[in-house]
Amino acid sequence: MKLAVVGGGSTYTPELIDGFARLRDTLPVTELVLIDPAADRLELVGGLARRIFAKQGHPGTITTTSDLDAGVTGADAVLLQLRVGGQAARRQDETWPLECGCVGQETTGAGGLAKALRTVPVVLDIAGRVRRTSPDAWIIDFTNPVGIVTRALLQAGHKAVGLCNVAIGFQRKFAKLLDVAPAEVHLDHVGLNHLTWELGVRLGGPAGEDLLPRLIAEHGDAIAADLHMPRAVVDRLGVVPSYYLRYFYQHDEVVRELGSKPSRAAEVAAMEKELLALYGDPALDEKPELLAGRGGAFYSEAAVDLASSLLGGGGSGVQVVNTYNNGTLPFLPDDAVIETQARVDASGATPLAVPALDPMYAGLVSHVTAYENLALEAALHGGRERVFKALLAHPLVGQFEYAEALTDKLLAHNREHLAWA
Amino acid sequence: MKLAVVGGGSTYTPELIDGFARLRDTLPVTELVLIDPAADRLELVGGLARRIFAKQGHPGTITTTSDLDAGVTGADAVLLQLRVGGQAARRQDETWPLECGCVGQETTGAGGLAKALRTVPVVLDIAGRVRRTSPDAWIIDFTNPVGIVTRALLQAGHKAVGLCNVAIGFQRKFAKLLDVAPAEVHLDHVGLNHLTWELGVRLGGPAGEDLLPRLIAEHGDAIAADLHMPRAVVDRLGVVPSYYLRYFYQHDEVVRELGSKPSRAAEVAAMEKELLALYGDPALDEKPELLAGRGGAFYSEAAVDLASSLLGGGGSGVQVVNTYNNGTLPFLPDDAVIETQARVDASGATPLAVPALDPMYAGLVSHVTAYENLALEAALHGGRERVFKALLAHPLVGQFEYAEALTDKLLAHNREHLAWA
Amino acid sequence: MKLAVVGGGSTYTPELIDGFARLRDTLPVTELVLIDPAADRLELVGGLARRIFAKQGHPGTITTTSDLDAGVTGADAVLLQLRVGGQAARRQDETWPLECGCVGQETTGAGGLAKALRTVPVVLDIAGRVRRTSPDAWIIDFTNPVGIVTRALLQAGHKAVGLCNVAIGFQRKFAKLLDVAPAEVHLDHVGLNHLTWELGVRLGGPAGEDLLPRLIAEHGDAIAADLHMPRAVVDRLGVVPSYYLRYFYQHDEVVRELGSKPSRAAEVAAMEKELLALYGDPALDEKPELLAGRGGAFYSEAAVDLASSLLGGGGSGVQVVNTYNNGTLPFLPDDAVIETQARVDASGATPLAVPALDPMYAGLVSHVTAYENLALEAALHGGRERVFKALLAHPLVGQFEYAEALTDKLLAHNREHLAWA
Amino acid sequence: MKLAVVGGGSTYTPELIDGFARLRDTLPVTELVLIDPAADRLELVGGLARRIFAKQGHPGTITTTSDLDAGVTGADAVLLQLRVGGQAARRQDETWPLECGCVGQETTGAGGLAKALRTVPVVLDIAGRVRRTSPDAWIIDFTNPVGIVTRALLQAGHKAVGLCNVAIGFQRKFAKLLDVAPAEVHLDHVGLNHLTWELGVRLGGPAGEDLLPRLIAEHGDAIAADLHMPRAVVDRLGVVPSYYLRYFYQHDEVVRELGSKPSRAAEVAAMEKELLALYGDPALDEKPELLAGRGGAFYSEAAVDLASSLLGGGGSGVQVVNTYNNGTLPFLPDDAVIETQARVDASGATPLAVPALDPMYAGLVSHVTAYENLALEAALHGGRERVFKALLAHPLVGQFEYAEALTDKLLAHNREHLAWA
């Protein structure tokens, strides 16, 4: 079984490698290719990756390459974890929207649109090369904004599933609070990527008892603290929103916070520098402590589970992923991409039925879906007008003057990444 | 043919009477009952109404009463134009939301929710009395928020149609600009009450040539000026939004404007005082000039047309009204109430097919529909929690802290009008 | 020794009476007159006042009257604690400025100007009557805004001193934290009423050791919590600002807070209702617990100390009061009224020398002094233009559009209290 | 007579040269040295300068050098027109303050502080070199923020006068409106650099008739349009504020504007590129049209007038400059630097008496003076704490959270220019 990781030179990769090593029974990888245009970085990361495999006695080989076509050839699955423009572009995404009082964030709002515009063409190019070299390979997309990118892939006919770590994070958190095994926890996780609510937390499976009311009653403070939202939010809603709902439920407060502190990109960039220095140490043969602060907890577990289900291995077969709606949320078009519990097997992902979504959430989901639709149009076809339309359609923008100004700022800060601009 | 007007003591009534007088060929009313609990005011208005009929040689009789049941008995149609709490309540609706930076308006946002909460139970009570006394009567609802009130009526099984003057205003305006008869102008008017866009302006009927691009090119300045929006909005969208879209497209600017000037309610209250003084003059036998500034242009024409179509008279048979969606906008539930061109006859209103609504608008329409759904729940069943949910679901509120604060303010200012509060 | 209390029907009065009773050695009052136009209320308060004196064995008499001239005749000192327009006017002051994003507060910003405009003419009328009936009487002004009201009194040639409880509150608080007697604590308290900083906390007197650095280091959390400001504010400034500096240092956050909760006036009004019910109980002969939440802690101690110093009794002779600057703060005009430690005796109050005020504070003090100057002009001479000028000059307003809007709102909400409007 | 221009490679220099050529009777320069570290740019600008002199028959020589000491040696006057960090630094100054809702501008607010911090040490170093090489030379400072920079120079004992073109711009504008010669127009120009009001416009001199009321009545629209403020501002104040008062009187509106359009620095940078291309054309021998849009109108006339007065030539002897207050504004310290009409001769600048400044303006002037005091401390001595203090003291910042955030942003964007950071 051969896996390729596009963006394999990421400082995050050792986390993924550690997961592959620990979970080799679930996903028996024989060959792992790390692909990245940044050769120097790739060498540092690849070296550590090999030492981790060696220390844990994993028999698979790890190779590195900057040649995408060569790297993906013959792969059974290709993981996408790239970042077009790197942390520098992210820092921009997090900053310029604040100039007109709008949230600056890498996946939500105007910053998220910028990321989508930069990313979709690159991902589609990669996917095209994968299709040419390894027509049967599955594409597993971690690359943000996962919802829009996955829709771009599916719409272009690729074998793709989108993956995010929000759901698995909740699963592990709730399992710990309930003192049960993570696999016992089934989430009624509904919405769009980064716009989801846990409507139920069931023991054993979709038909299990819903423990969410008990969880909130007994552990509401801990849950709310993780979300950086007041306890009252969780109590009043009676469901658990994803952390990203802060950008909606507390928009103005978040804007003030973001305007008052260094960008997350600046923090991550500093951390990456430190991590790369550590990776260069030939004595290091496990993921360093520091990596925990880098974000992306449990991504490797989620990736292993998903890949093994898709490739006929020992995966759980049920997982929260991003895929076509196909009637799951009746108020959305079939070809919208949603994030929800799905049955996953060699034929791909099929959403499970979910509880009805309260209008309190469904209205917002419809609104953001319309934005994502327009964002994808802009990413595929370019043009100032399409960017403007997507921004006006975003519930966090919505005002004419802001949409105009944000369009100009987006273009001014992203010209080098947008072929059409 | 007997018509009853609930809220007949409104200073606006002479406008309606003038329309009935001018258009008696279309709608041959024989008996008109003005119903209002405010007997003094009713007397002033009723007197002028009779003098207007007399001067124009209308043979029908006009009676006044504060007894609702008596007044509506035997009516063929009942027009609802009431305002629970009067201008005083409206002034509140326009003011307290500003305290937390949200728009204060009688139909949009938190103020509109307050109005819905006050109004729906009163209207349903009246409709129940109409059904008991005149089971075949049509209810024509002018009472705001028309969308929510109409949905309440339809959901309770009443024979009702909702009516607003935004569409007829555009029709008349565009006819003038195009130098054609108003009846020649067919609007592709799509959305929800006070949340509509003119997607096309067709000559002669639904299949006529679309003159909207020409209208915008040649008269964009005049159109934008009427909307109090910059010309660029109309040019960029290529469609004409209703004036109420300002509360969305220019929300923050409108909040600043509203915070800087007297409320519209205060202006109207002053005007009403003046109007009533005029009405008391027995020499006055036509609607005074001043009434033009009161708002509600062309309401009487729209009402006459609608009533005559419903009652088998000489109405146009095609009119913009509020009624069940029933698949017209495919992304909304069938039982959402939309505002659009409809065929109107003795069986009621049936929406005509409309062009597809761009996601740039459809997302917002879905979001507001979800709010209206929750607003109606709150109006029907009461409770702080339902009010909070509706506010959190509103795209112009959406933030937890504001939803909480606005809920408290709404309740504090409306306790006397809310049985459950 | 005869004392008169104008506004004696306040629910706060039992606090004052309790102080007079406890501190009768310092201030041997023989006759106390409570004066208030609200006769019913005065009766309730007066009854309890007499029972408190009786229980504590105070030999003085307490009388009540609604006749101001009669009440003040022969008084040695007259205490002013009135509130023109009551809690209803205060509720307005706290609310309408929020409509354009400005702080709504009873003494700071536009609400404070409204209070000044309502209050100054009433206080000057009372002072004139005092001068006619008791030319030697001292006027002790508690009535807010104390700085502007005191300046009005002094400028009109009255024997007046302004008093606020912020300083004595700090003195008691710091004494407790330092575990010394309050009289041991000398404050370098500098600025204007409700715009002060404790620059030093000295043991024993003006030349004593400055314990403020130690206080902040050891008790910074407790001090900051009392101020409702983050600990960082106290640490970074190295001095202790008055609670009212929140309206400057955290203006936007306070506006959001105020927009999200019931007004303080509404809370106080509810409490007053409860208190009056308690006062009516003939068995009650001490100030009830509930009174502690009413605000005004230590006012009675401060008043007794000040009155006894002015009247040649056993007062401390040194106290924080409001009086003419006379060069104390060299960057302000001599006839500005400042709040600072002063020597107080039968000739009145004379400020003690204070440490130089850092430009970080002095600039703001100059700015607010200019505002107070214009506010007093507006209070004395009326006119929309003077109101506008004062608002434009206020550092928390300062913008043309806001000054215009706030002027209109101030006038609209205060017409009944402003003879000239 | 030898003059040196530090920053002589500025694209603005041809304007200055054109003035020197036209006004050679007033200021008979024999040698002009353009000094700039950017040798390439200096060559382009110097070439055009020589061609302008040649075409207009000016007999003086123009030399260029990047060696400051050599260039200033023997100079009678040194003009400072440098920009530390260039347009790139300016673009930062105009942008990052917007991220927390504060005005971003090159001389006002947090951006102006950044410029002061970068500039003061450089200017003091240059002034020290001037003093060593040409102890009698006058320093004429155009470099912004002129008020703070001039105070730094004077405080260090240099022979310096600060100059800005706001006053001469008003003089020329008013002269045109009144149809008189500019020299006939005497301004009662009072305040601090970029914080001034024209309190009077007198014909013939300080004692002439005040024509300001007539100017406003007859030309208020034109005057207000130049200021980009509503006519009402001019009418209501009855005086003419400088354009920079917009940042105070319309702060929030300006922030929105700035957040919605490209920075002024970006515009100027584009224009400079174009200008330099033009300057390279050996056929060009006059200042090009395009230079008019660069800003700085009438600077050359003001500079010639000032230099000739200081050097005993034919200057007017009375001019608006920046110099020590020395009691002119009685509410400011003597060593504050103000901007006002002054008598200028070989002994330097001595302010003329000015009308009293209304508290409506004086409060703000005091506040900004306190800020400038702290800004200079920060520029001279460095340190995060001093930056924070200056920001907290600025009337457009004033809030703790913003002062903290802006301090961090200022430092993050200016580290390369601040030796101590």
Automatic annotation (TrEMBL), chains A, B, C, D:
Note whether Glycoprotein occurs among the keywords: no
Q: Which Enzyme Commission numbers does its entry carry?
A: 3.2.1.86
Note on cofactor: Binds 1 NAD(+) per subunit.
Q: Where does substrate bind?
A: R90, N144, R264
Q: What positions does the entry give for Mn(2+) binding?
A: C164, H194
Q: Which Pfam families match?
A: Glyco_hydro_4, Glyco_hydro_4C
Name the residues annotated as site: Increases basicity of active site Tyr.
E106
- Which GO BP terms apply? carbohydrate metabolic process
The prosthetic group or cofactor this protein requires is: NAD(+)
Molecular function GO terms recorded: 6-phospho-beta-glucosidase activity; metal ion binding; oxidoreductase activity, acting on the CH-OH group of donors, NAD or NADP as acceptor
Q: Which InterPro entries match?
A: Glyco_hydro_4, Glyco_hydro_4_C, Lactate_DH/Glyco_Ohase_4_C, NAD(P)-bd_dom_sf
Q: Where is the Glycosyl hydrolase family 4 C-terminal domain?
A: 190-397
> Which key words are in the record?
Cobalt, Glycosidase, Hydrolase, Iron, Manganese, Metal-binding, NAD, Nickel
Q: Please report which protein family the annotation says this sequence is part of.
A: Belongs to the glycosyl hydrolase 4 family.
Q: What is this protein called?
A: 6-phospho-beta-glucosidase
Lineage, top ranks = Bacteria, Bacillati, Actinomycetota, Actinomycetes, Kitasatosporales
